[in-house]
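User: Sequence recovery, please. Input:
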């Protein structure tokens, strides 16, 4: 989201720090003669996903280097506001924020905190030691502006007593502007073919051109960090249970799961490999298919990611991750108008209409399996594409961000 913010303000992430003059602002998102000028310090500390959360001396040197760059912007360009993405409730990350705030905050007139990671307020109340609570409130408290991802997180941010809290959900550029012509016809054809199969019709040939190969296979997509708390293993169990029911009822339909993402822990990768090799997930329990029920794609992006969303029939993300915020993967699934299975966890239900049937309790593969068996038969007609266009496009994000940043500066 920082990358998107820099983009919509007209910035260039390849340069650090980068001055963005008003005349360079993207006219599609900001008014002419906007007073905003943006300077970006790329402050990445971890080398890869396995390095996240590890304490290394090299990270301390990088922190000081990045802080010096930020202070240089303050004196070189007269920057007045310090924009920062604070840590979740993780002790090592909180200590990092102490260093950054101690070195940088005294030099800036305004502090803007953008809470992409969540849970710090709760951690201060339940786990932090007294001196940690005092230090965190001293260094990060009383911010001029706190930006949260949804109404659910207002209370968490309020524990640090900011002067103002604004709700701005995550957003993305439209990944499929040609949805109506390029994706919707195939999606409708696959649904129609499954309905005929359930009604007893056997021939699939008339629909193969529009619905793609194997329309009898309901393709479920899991795309996120591959961890237990993000719901990966619950999804595996749910697919196994759902296929067992389809097999037991002699249904002509089957479910296939594609997993896309990186593993954080090697132990979970080994557990994953062991689980998908078992009979109920490796295809040996199917009468028609001998290929595995699970496909693992690893980290994907660009055209490969776009194609995977286009070819999927459902998106499953049953997270109960302690620091879950506003998952961009759910926004992407909405952009492609996929039926979604998600958990009643933190702010996730706020993304969906009241009474949406695809929400389950955390750690409930049986509930997920039940919904998969319903979704494979019934067109939900949720119009998530419309929800995305109305609420989660980058233009809306850009306009809202620019407004609150300007108001913060003038207060």
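Assistant: Recovered sequence (411 residues):
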């Amino acid at each position: 989201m920082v990358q998107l913010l820099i983009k919509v303000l007209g910035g260039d992430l390849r340069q650090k720090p980068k001055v963005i003059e008003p005349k360079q602002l993207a006219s599609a998102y900001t008014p002419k003669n906007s007073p905003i000028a943006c300077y970006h310090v790329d402050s990445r500390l971890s080398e890869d996903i396995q390095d996240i959360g590890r304490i290394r001396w090299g990270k301390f040197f990088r922190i000081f280097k990045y802080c010096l760059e930020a202070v240089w912007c303050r004196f070189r360009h007269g920057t007045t506001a310090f924009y920062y993405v604070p840590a979740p409730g993780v002790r090592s990350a909180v200590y990092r924020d102490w260093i950054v705030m101690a070195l940088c905050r005294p030099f800036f007139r305004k502090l803007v905190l953008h809470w992409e990671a969540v849970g710090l307020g709760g951690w201060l109340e339940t786990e932090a030691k007294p001196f940690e609570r005092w230090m965190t409130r001293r260094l990060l408290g009383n911010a001029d502006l706190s930006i949260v991802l949804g109404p659910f997180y207002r209370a968490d941010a309020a524990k640090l007593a900011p002067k103002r809290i604004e709700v701005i959900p995550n957003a993305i550029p439209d990944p499929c502007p040609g949805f109506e012509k390029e994706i919707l016809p195939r999606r409708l054809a696959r649904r129609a073919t499954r309905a005929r199969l359930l009604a007893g019709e056997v021939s699939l040939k008339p629909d193969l051109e529009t619905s793609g190969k194997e329309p009898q296979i309901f393709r479920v997509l899991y795309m996120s960090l591959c961890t237990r708390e993000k719901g990966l293993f619950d999804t595996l169990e749910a697919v196994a249970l759902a296929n067992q029911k389809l097999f037991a009822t002699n249904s002509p339909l089957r479910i296939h799961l594609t997993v896309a993402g990186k593993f954080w822990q090697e132990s979970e990768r080994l557990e994953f490999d062991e689980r998908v090799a078992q009979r109920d997930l490796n295809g040996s329990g199917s009468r028609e298919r001998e290929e595995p029920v699970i496909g693992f794609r690893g980290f994907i992006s660009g055209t490969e990611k776009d194609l995977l969303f286009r070819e999927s029939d459902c998106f499953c993300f049953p997270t109960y991750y302690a620091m879950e915020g506003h998952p961009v993967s759910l926004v992407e699934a909405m952009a492609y108008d996929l039926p979604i299975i998600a958990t009643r966890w933190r702010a996730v239900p706020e993304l969906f209409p009241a009474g949406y049937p695809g929400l389950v309790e955390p750690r409930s593969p049986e509930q997920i399996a039940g919904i998969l068996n319903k979704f494979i038969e019934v067109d939900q007609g949720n119009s998530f594409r419309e929800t995305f266009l109305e609420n989660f496009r980058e233009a809306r994000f850009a306009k809202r961000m620019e407004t609150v940043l300007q108001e913060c500066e003038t207060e």
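Residues 183 and 310 are 6 Å apart (CA to CA).
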